[in-house]
Amino acid sequence: MSDADLFLHCLRAEVAPATGCTEPIAIAYAAANALTYLEDDTIEAITVRVSPNVMKNTMAVMVPGVGEPGLAVAAAAGAVAGDPDAGLDVIAAITMAQVAAIKQLAHSGRVHTSMAAVADDLYVAVKVTTRAGWAQVEIAGSHTNIYRVEKNGTRLIDQPKPAAHARSAQKAALQQVSLQRIWDFATTVPLAKITFMQAADKLNWALAEAGLTQAYGLGVGRAYSPKHALDAEADLAAQIQAYTTAASDARMGGAALPAMSNSGSGNQGITATIPISVIARAQNVDQEHLLRALTLSHLTALYAHAYLPVLGPFCATDTAAMGAAVGSSYLLALGYAGACKAVRNMAGDAPGMVCDGAGASCALKVGTAVNSMYRAVQLAAQDIVVPATNGLVCADVDETIRGIGHLGTVGMQGVDAAVLNVMLNKQAPRITIKPRS
């Protein structure tokens, strides 16, 4: 497969609209699909089992359109209002009339949730029981990858389960490329082939505006955005901070608007997009430069994430912000050499944040990531770069990116279990989760 074919395939597959945090969305998607196998929609019970990472990322984050968090709410939303054919937009069309039914089901005692004894990074099993029988849908490997469906004891779909911690063929292919090849592609590909990237700017900018004008989440974007920060004359750092965190506020606070995700994460998609959108507007760039910068940013984010698990202890807004650093370097005419310096500066600045579960505080982490990003780009513009003798910074930019991946996988083993123990013990003391091997 040529670079162009691989990169276009990855962009179309991994830069996709998603309404709401993608872990509760995976639960809703499983519930909606389970109901399609049942002749009766009178729900008697729903049983939800998930991997530790999915549990961590579902406990506190708002389900879009409902205004409440949790696994039971996500499952009820999928069962009551889910569109099984809509992928990550499964509950994008929840109506006000359906909200009461969702909440009633979620709190009725008929929805039972637990952690599955699995080693998978991403695993969801939802069993829906009605008067007509039961159906169970199992997902693993990626948020919409249904590999098994069982109805009343008969397996209707029975594909091999993805191996725990396995990387997809797509990620394996991305591990064989380089940042130089990504740069060469994005800066020369015929524009008609990447016009679809315009949707990332459109969707994520709408989230930013929602976060700035309405009360979502912690309101981090609004707190960071005194009026001068939204003026065209404000410095770019202030604008990037305000708009990017506001978009995360809206997404994590339950806005019924889709984010353009990256690597299965809306926050990563926001982080890879909004800094580019802000700089493009400030510089009044033409569509070609915007599209090429978005392509650079999202492809670099996908490349860096190829060395990380689909879900894990590393907050991958950091690697998404490395994508934004490359795209910003292009818009600011720093060239490929400047982009490499910016990535290396990020690796020497804040090379890794702990993911402590999806929630309102994600907006703070997004803000940290884009602050590091723009600081790194500003230093690169002055030919200041962290030397390769320091920490995770390597002389070769691709080796630097691989080192970040090593930190996020091997180096942070045990972090997920520690975080989840704290989260679960706030609700049910003396639960202990052991680190996975």
TrEMBL record:
Domain Serine dehydratase-like alpha subunit: residue ranges: 159-420
Alphabetized InterPro entries for the sequence: Ser_deHydtase-like_asu, UPF0597
Xref: Pfam families: SDH_alpha (PF03313)
Signal sequence segment: none
Family in the record: Belongs to the UPF0597 family.
Name assigned to this protein: UPF0597 protein ACFQ5J_09365
